[in-house]
Model the fold of this input.
Amino acid sequence: LAQAVTAQAIRAPSSCRFARARLYQMAALAYDSEFASARVTTVKDVSADRFIAAFAQHLKRQGRFEIPKWADVVKTSRAKELPPSNPDWLYVRTASMVRKVYIRGGSGVGAFRKVYGGQQRRGTCTKVFCKSSGKIARYILQQLEEMGLVEQAEDGGRIITKEGQRELDTVAVQAAEVEEADDE
Done:
């Protein structure tokens, strides 16, 4: 019946534009209520900042990720003047990188150097793009491989493993529950 009414409204002359618009609104409301009740099941369903904060805390609590001695003195790029001020910056960078591998697999050290690079200030000269540190990206990817979250792809780069996908989705669901509790 609804399909017949919609088909009639579409074939109706232009004088029935208001009725046609009303039918489209009713259809949109039906779909909106359908999607509003959808549950969070993957990393893509949670905002990036919420997921990265939650996964960084998860890594810190777990204790499987080793922090190297050089982590408190190293700069993240040639373009930076000082090391990061956040003491947990390596956990945050790791969470960000593993999210990027989850969303778009096949990224390697070179791709992450470009992603986390920035403008290098050169005094009176023009600013130039500068890649970030490859050592940090390589170290994080190696640690994620040891943890079993990512693996090397056949055609280069890293991809997420089944175990890694399961763990990231679990953290995403927990982050979404915290987000819903904050909204209420």
Q: What stands out?
A: The mean pLDDT is 86. The first helix runs from residue 2 to 11. The helical segments are 2-11, 17-36, 48-62, 89-103, 109-115, 134-147, 162-183.
